[in-house]
Design a protein that fits this description.
5 domains, alpha+beta, 495 residues, Uridine Diphospho-n-acetylenolpyruvylglucosamine Reductase, domain 2, Uridine Diphospho-n-acetylenolpyruvylglucosamine Reductase, domain 3, five-stranded antiparallel beta sheet, single chain, Alpha-Beta Plaits, seven-stranded antiparallel beta sheet
Length: 495
């Protein structure tokens, strides 16, 4: 993955930059030694590593504001970072950029049960929100597999989803407001406890913006009441096609499960060995369907799902009898990624979405691609909304295998777009899909996206090298006057 060339002037000024940051964030808030910065050299896309220029860990909004204002005035790049669980390289450091870590922003500021909202700092974990309110019978719906570690600020940046996004939506559907700091240091608020604001949907723009537009310092989210009845149905199929057809049939019947996940045989074997959830080892495809709501409704829907599954050839049909068994069903799915890590040195977790009706075709073609690239692929994904998470198994220490894994992943994502899907469902673009943006978007589309970027960050200092396949500058998009077909600053690096 090619990144922008390092700016030698910034590298020469490193000592000056570190000294200025120590004034803004005194004490232990600035890390500039190599060993101290080592934990920040990559995010969850760990095949790619780069030491940052310096790491700064502010504790207050005023410090964040002062850091960004300094960087704007001195043309220093900034990479915002939450928990570092991005699977697309969204928070990968850059060698001539400050890494702005928000791990110390980890407090729950307010819980308003009457209005069913929580106001938290961006470093609070996804699961931490639910833990803070569950004693009152509430929870926060989006639940990525990394929810024990991922931060809510990162969820906003990537518009994260999770197992229950089919029924309850992604982060954008559960986000009510944010406080953010612009590159100029200005602190602004978007949304809040109230209903949708008038005017432009700036909150929608910020959700999924991957740190390109500003730094989020506070988040207001919607809380939901825990449903009175929740049951999970475990379904095993002799073929992947049978499982995929069952998914489409359930949705076509008008049933919207709380969650609907699918695992292939290899994933089932790994999860069962790792957790011992009681999964059927003879199944080529495993479905977990969760239904929630009033007991009468849930009982009816469970029976209907069982019926649909048997019609599609299900050989295993098990319904959870209590909360403990339901949690056990999900334990294997939640642990699928680390479980796969037990059988391979490395894996690349992709994220693409396809129409549910094309699942059978896509899974079959992925198997053929696996033979072509000579790499195994394990499938664990949100079947209900067609959000695929293929895991490509490889050894990152083998340059050839890494290259083949990249090519395999690119082929899968191109396939997603070809069948009417999109490059990403919830992991973002980052650096992983950056060079594939032209597969889904036209040049006009990308130029429009860059114009939005220019409106917030005209000097391109926030999260450089991410999302856009090539560096588009505001000059090229009509934001400055170009005389005699000559751009100002012709030495600006383009990659």
């Amino acid at each position: 993955m090619q990144m922008p060339p390092l700016d030698p002037d910034i590298l020469r000024r490193r000592g000056e930059i570190v000294a200025a940051l120590r004034v803004i964030v005194p004490g232990e808030g600035v890390i500039d030694d190599l060993e101290g910065m080592r934990p920040y050299e990559c995010d969850a896309l760990s095949a790619y590593r780069q030491m940052p220029l310096v790491v700064v860990l502010p504790e207050t909004v005023a410090q964040v504001s002062a850091i960004l204002r300094y960087c704007q005035d001195n043309k220093v790049k900034v990479v915002p970072r939450g928990a570092g669980t991005s699977l697309s390289g969204g928070s990968m450091p850059v060698g001539d950029a400050i890494l702005l870590g928000l791990g110390k922003f980890n407090r729950v500021l307010e819980i308003d049960y009457a209005n069913r909202v929580a106001r938290v700092q961006p470093g609070v974990t996804n699961l931490g929100i639910t833990k803070a309110v569950e004693h009152e019978g509430f929870y926060y719906a989006p639940d990525p597999s990394s929810q024990i570690a991922c931060s809510i600020g990162g969820n906003v940046a990537e518009n994260s989803g999770g197992v229950h996004c089919l029924k309850y939506g992604l982060t954008t559907n559960n986000l009510l407001g944010i406080e953010m700091v612009l590159m100029t240091g200005e602190v602004v608020r978007l949304g809040g406890k109230h209903l949708d604001s008038e005017g432009y949907d700036l909150l929608g723009i910020m959700t999924g913006s991957e740190g390109l537009l500003g730094v989020v310092t506070e988040v207001t989210v919607r809380l939901l009441r825990k449903p009175s009845t929740v049951r999970a149905v475990l379904l095993g199929f002799p073929t992947e096609a049978g499982g995929a057809e069952c998914v489409a049939a359930v949705i076509a019947a008008g049933i919207i499960p709380g969650g609907m996940e699918m695992m292939d045989k290899e994933a089932v074997k790994c999860a069962e060995a790792y957790v011992g959830a009681g999964y059927p080892m003879d199944a080529e495809a495993l479905l977990i369907v969760e239904l929630d709501g009033p007991q009468v409704e849930v009982d009816h829907l469970v029976a209907r799902v069982e019926e649909i599954a048997r019609e599609r050839g299900a050989t295993t049909v098990r319904v959870s009898h209590d909360e403990q068994e339901r949690v056990l069903f999900w334990a294997g799915r939640k642990a699928a990624f680390p479980a796969v890590g037990q059988i391979t040195p490395d894996y690349m977790c992709l994220d693409g979405s396809v129409p549910r009706g094309r699942l059978v075709e896509v899974l079959a073609e992925m198997r053929e691609m696996s033979k072509k690239h000579r790499l195994r692929v394990v499938n664990v994904f949100h079947a209900g909304d067609g959000n695929l998470h293929p895991l490509i198994l490889f050894d990152a220490n083998d340059a050839d295998e890494l290259h083949r894994a990249e090519e395999f992943g690119a082929d899968i994502l191109r396939l997603c777009v070809r069948v009417g899907g999109v490059l990403t469902g919830e992991h973002g673009v980052g650096i992983e899909k950056r060079d594939l943006m032209g597969v889904q978007f036209t040049e006009i589309d990308l130029d429009q996206q860059m114009r939005l970027k220019c409106a917030f960050d005209p000097d391109h200092l926030l999260n450089p090298g991410k999302v856009f396949p090539q560096l588009r500058r505001c000059a090229e998009l009509g934001r400055v006057v170009v005389h005699h077909n000559k751009l100002p600053f012709p030495d600006i690096p383009r990659f």
